[in-house]
Design a protein that fits this description.
364 residues; alpha/beta; Quinone Oxidoreductase, Chain A, domain 1; Rossmann fold; seven-stranded mixed sheet; six-stranded parallel sheet; 12 helices; globular; binds NADP nicotinamide-adenine-dinucleotide phosphate
Length: 364
């Protein structure tokens, strides 16, 4: 990372080598500079959210697909904040409140050269990934949305979920699950939404979000319950596609975002390394696809793609109160406390036990 011409720096949470969460440190890096000012903005970050993909990136699992361009690498890609430097293209104005998912590319496929994450006082975002923040949301709520909201929306669209359909969503209390339940019920108008969650407050949350049936996955086996009444659509957020093949209707669709991706989907998002062929199978070779086919159903793996249109749809749904953010908690960027500070947010999110999203606020 070259130094800013005026020596300006900013604080961030970053890692200088792949490893466990212990390699994450609060450090100082150069303030954004040298990016394409025509199509990028600088956002003064107010809040940033954590996702399982951050853990995968940190421990090196994505090295072959999305290698870190340069160390130290700022972590987290969900952000909300205020435009500090507008783009020369005129899409945004200084002072506008926005939210975004940072991608290495815009949705036109154009690469953003200044690619870092959002857990920093400032970040750079391609305008194609940025949308005005719904005014009824706090910055913390807005930061919780982009990755999980767009993933759920894209998955349910890919599954061709239609009004009146029955849908089974695994992992209802997770970041993606909480969005998927709300979208399935209130946007797609599914006739029946069934989900899995631990009993107690997680099950109660899923019901409040719109699930018609919540199965305690620790004591009940959905394969044994839905032997006759099968589902038009199954959305797999927990790597249970093989079991879902037994509860999907003939002609139904299973869409998975969990477990190993297919070679085709990795290629679609830009993974070009030849070595990927050794690790990843084509869709037709996958046992999940074969299991679904045996029941005359379809199976696909989906990776989130950049889409300003999808984030705009989510902003409208949030603005109208059709869907709501679900936060597990808010932690403080400016605190080093193991529990209340930024470290606590990563510990909680990476535990895989969160109820909705773990968000770090930059407010003092
Ligand atoms: N392909 C993509 O583009 C994409 C995008 C986003 C996410 N993902 C993947 O999708 C998965 C879910 O992401 P997320 O952000 O929703 O994760 P998350 O927020 O970390 O999920 C945590 C929640 O999942 C629940 N859970 C875990 N195992 C479960 C099971 N077998 N049945 C029911 N609930 C279960 C946990 O509840 P308990 O504590 O009760 O177990 C917890 O509430 C991750 O593997 C992530 O990597 C992929």
């Amino acid at each position: 990372m070259t130094n800013h011409p005026d020596g300006k720096t900013m604080d961030c949470i970053a890692f200088s080598k792949y490893g466990s969460p212990d390699v994450l440190k609060k450090t100082s890096v150069s303030y954004p500079h040298g990016f394409d000012a025509q199509s990028n903005v600088v956002i003064k970050v107010h809040a940033s959210a954590i996702n399982p993909v951050d853990k995968a990136l940190l421990n090196g699992d994505l090295k072959m697909v999305r290698p870190v361009a340069e160390f130290p690498h700022v972590i987290s890609y969900d952000v909300s904040g205020v435009i500090a430097e507008a783009d020369a293209g005129g899409s945004f104005e200084v002072g506008q409140a926005v939210f975004a998912r940072l991608f290495g590319t815009a949705d036109d496929g154009k690469k953003t050269p200044w690619y870092r994450g959002a857990m920093a006082e400032y970040c750079v975002a391609n305008v194609a990934n940025v949308v005005v923040k719904p005014s009824n949301l706090t910055f913390e709520e807005a930061a919780s949305i982009p990755l999980v909201g767009m993933t759920a929306l894209q998955a349910l669209n890919a599954a061709n979920l239609k009004q009146g359909d029955s849908v089974f969503i695994s992992g209802g209390a997770g970041g993606v699950g909480t969005m998927a339940i709300q979208l399935a019920k209130h946007l797609f108008k599914a006739g029946l939404v069934v989900t899995t969650a631990s009993a107690g407050e997680k099950a109660d949350l899923c019901e409040a979000l719109g699930a018609d049936v919540v199965l305690d996955y620790k004591s009940k086996n959905f394969e044994e319950i839905y032997v006759e009444d099968k589902f038009d659509v199954c959305f797999d957020t927990t790597n249970e596609s093989l079991s879902m093949a037994n509860v999907v209707k003939e002609g139904g669709r299973i869409v998975s975002i969990a477990g190993m991706p297919t070679l085709e989907e990795i290629r679609r998002i830009g993974g070009t390394a030849w070595i990927l062929k050794l690790f990843l199978k084509r869709r037709e070779k996958r046992k999940e696809y074969k299991a679904a086919k045996k029941h005359s159903a379809d199976w696909n793996y989906l990776f989130l793609s950049p889409s300003q249109a999808d984030l705009t749809t989510l902003a409208e749904l949030l603005d109208s109160g059709t869907i709501k953010p679900v936060l597990d908690g808010i932690w403080k960027f400016h605190s080093e406390d193991e529990n209340a500070g930024w470290k606590g947010a990563f510990t909680r999110s990476f535990s895989g036990r969160a109820k909705g999203k773990c968000v770090v606020t930059f407010e003092q």
